[in-house]
């Protein structure tokens, strides 16, 4: 059979995308609504537009082996940390090396701060479409923006989600954050920064390093918040809320409401991460796997689509600045006798470029940097 004619065309915000049979036009038309998947739901869509339909290989299947009962992402209790530090460090080491994920409880972030961040997320996404449209864009230089699928034009199938994105850097003017969630977002950020500092200390100690070791590597100079809104999906069996991926950053802290759907890859199974009231989900990103020489792992995770919603999550990603000149490679002090570095040294900007060129639903670029 002759291959379908394929051309390439320039698309907004991303590189060239192979075009065939009107798919690009559909993507452009969806993007031009500036109303995201919430807009589709509000307009009464009952059949998924084909840009959201994933190939069966990328969807959960009844044939997938169910994870054995009892397999559960570790929950780490931070209460009384001053007296239990060694024990907690041990748990963080175990969780980061075998799961790449853990849930923190008694972490000191007040529940009302987390709830306000989730409700701020909801208030923003439930604004009038014309309000949200004012900040709908895909410009890398914008600190605050709203969009559906940051990888829309490079990925094979779009996810059923909209996102409010905020990059906290020196150039952010807090007034740029939509007023319906400004206060909640700034308070959430402040607490997440403090918690991330503690987590970086625990991770340093778990690697046998000085408490401030990772902090001094400028691994978290940039933090960006993504407030995802996943409306109830009319045909959840055909799509994903978030395709499989590992996070191309150093560390992620995430809170979610009670709908669930997050799964992590562990020992060949997709394991549910059930929402634990008050817990903050922590996961190791690709850069931490690289500098720890695989002592900590950045694992694939995904979010299943559901007929119920809206699912809300607010993730805070910690990463170096993209103009950071440090070349990140395996930390020499942690290499054991005869252990060789598994990765070459890399500029963070080069790493993120590899990720952004492909989008979600693909293997991590980490393999490209192995020695
Ligand atoms: O919404 C979630 O729970 C996960 C989102 C996620 O994995 C991501 O944005 O990287
Ligand atoms: Fe993620």
UniProtKB/TrEMBL annotation:
Keywords (A to Z) from UniProt: Iron, Metal-binding, Oxidoreductase
Coiled-coil region: none
GO molecular function: dioxygenase activity; metal ion binding
Alphabetized Pfam families for the sequence: 2OG-FeII_Oxy, DIOX_N
Signal peptide: none
Stretches with biased composition (Low complexity): 1-10
Segments forming domain Fe2OG dioxygenase: 221-320
Residue segments, region Disordered: 1-20
Entries under InterPro entries matching the protein: DIOX_N, IPNS-like_FE2OG_OXY, Oxoglu/Fe-dep_dioxygenase_dom
Statement: the UniProt record of this protein carries the keyword NAD: no
Annotated family: Belongs to the iron/ascorbate-dependent oxidoreductase family.
Protein name from the UniProt record: Fe2OG dioxygenase domain-containing protein
Organism for this UniProt entry: Zingiber officinale (Ginger)
């Amino acid at each position: 059979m002759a291959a379908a004619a394929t051309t390439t065309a320039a698309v907004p915000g991303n590189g060239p995308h192979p075009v065939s049979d009107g798919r690009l036009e559909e993507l452009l038309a969806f993007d031009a609504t500036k109303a995201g998947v919430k807009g589709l739901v509000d307009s009464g869509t009952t059949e998924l537009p084909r840009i959201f339909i994933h190939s069966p290989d990328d969807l959960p299947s009844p044939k997938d082996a169910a994870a054995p009962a009892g397999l559960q992402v570790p929950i780490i209790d931070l209460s009384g940390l001053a007296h239990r530090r060694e024990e907690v460090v041990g748990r963080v080491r175990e969780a980061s090396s075998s799961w790449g994920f853990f849930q923190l409880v008694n972490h000191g972030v007040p529940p009302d701060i987390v709830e306000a961040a989730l409700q701020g997320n909801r208030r923003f996404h439930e604004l009038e479409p014309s309000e949200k449209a004012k900040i709908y864009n895909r410009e890398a230089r914008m600190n605050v923006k709203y969009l559906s699928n940051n990888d829309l034009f490079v990925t094979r199938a779009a996810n059923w989600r909209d996102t409010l994105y905020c990059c906290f850097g020196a150039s952010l003017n807090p007034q740029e954050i939509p007023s319906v969630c400004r206060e909640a977002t700034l308070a959430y950020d402040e607490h997440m920064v403090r918690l991330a500092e503690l987590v970086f200390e625990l991770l340093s100690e778990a690697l046998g390093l000085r408490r401030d070791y990772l902090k001094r590597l400028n691994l978290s100079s940039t933090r960006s918040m993504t407030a995802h809104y996943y409306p109830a999906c009319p045909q959840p069996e055909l799509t994903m809320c978030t395709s499989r991926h590992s996070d191309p950053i150093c560390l992620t802290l995430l809170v979610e409401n009670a709908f669930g759907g997050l799964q992590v890859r562990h020992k060949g199974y997709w394991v549910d991460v059930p929402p634990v009231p008050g817990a903050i989900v922590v996961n190791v990103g690709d850069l931490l796997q690289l500098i720890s020489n695989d002592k900590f792992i950045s694992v694939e995770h995904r979010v299943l689509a559901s007929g119920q919603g809206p699912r809300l999550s607010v993730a805070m990603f910690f990463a170096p600045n993209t103009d950071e000149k440090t070349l990140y490679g395996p930390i020499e002090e942690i290499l054991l006798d005869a252990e060789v570095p598994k990765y070459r040294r890399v500029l963070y900007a080069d790493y993120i470029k590899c990720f952004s060129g492909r989008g979600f639903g693909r293997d991590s670029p980490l393999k490209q940097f192995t020695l």
